[in-house]
């Protein structure tokens, strides 16, 4: 049962990390909005955080393959603690330009930490695939769905925690408290996991590193626009819209926390919603196409509601966000399973890293557009941008193969 034990330890460690990562986002967003920063500036504060993740995923996957998953998980936790410490040194007496530059740099370090940790943690699931296979068809999907869903539920709790910490401890003390929590998580990882877990022969050149199969390439492209479509209205547009119609910070933070927790629970339940196939692809790929189409339709409907300025618009948006979250959660969970189904066994960390680099690119594009589109045309522009991305996502999923290009060692 060592594989299941390692899976449980990695999942618990990533829970701790995600709790502080969600709290960090809410801390920064609320703290600097309270200081009077514009929507574009708020988006800019997160840009390096997202951009750093693109390179961190690519390099992190290669490093995890070369040096082992445990070592890279440890590096990710240490890097996050460093980012928190630097951010806590922010001086209120600095100029606005200096403060923004310091926060962007510190956030960039945290972005590297997030994706090093995520790539390592997701790759650990692939390493346990042999045991998943022994436990029956669909076990890999269940493990992936539970990991992803529970992680996002913890992120939602982190949103609530960030608002609570900011209100009770203040900005600097909150960062110190979160760094202390991560130090405990780091100690548990270092003393519990095999040092060389997941170590394999890494790619020797960039050409080899980027030589992915058709399934991984198509899925990565779909991931870019899927997560761009979420963040283009969720990162800045939605919180600012809710605040602009009379919600206070506590209400906004609590709602986003509840939405993210619910989103995570739906992700964890995805294996019970999506029909499974013996080969792991023939039903799962059509499911990815179906749920992409449904998500696009929900967003188009939301955009129409905002354009028509329906009565009680804020509650229409809240209800629509619930439908969006349900469909998005199923999409995300199916994608997270498919990357492991398409990935090769020997270089799983590299394949996962490539895929999550695409994920980070989507978040970067979505974050940038979230501030710009909201400033240009409010929530309507943000939702139109999201809808266009989701139509593109659906089109890309039409190219997902239903047969594995690399059969060895890959089973659902």
Structure, explained:
- This protein has 412 residues and is an all-alpha fold.
- The chain is built from 14 helices and no strands.
- It has helices spanning 2-34, 39-67, 69-88, 96-127, 129-134, 139-168, 171-192, 206-209, 214-234, 237-244, 249-273, 284-307, 313-342, 348-397.
- 58% of the residues are buried.
Overview features:
412 residues; mainly alpha; disordered C terminus
Mean pLDDT: 81
List the helices and strands in order.
Answer: HHHHHHHHHHHHHH
- Global shape: globular
Distance N to C terminus:
19 Å
Strand-pairing-aware structural class? mainly alpha
How many alpha or pi helices? 14
| Number of separate strands | 0
**Major beta sheet summary:** none
Low-confidence stretches: 406-412
Fraction of residues in helix = over 70%
Gyration radius over CA: 20 Å
Classify the beta-strand content into a percent band.
Answer: under 5%
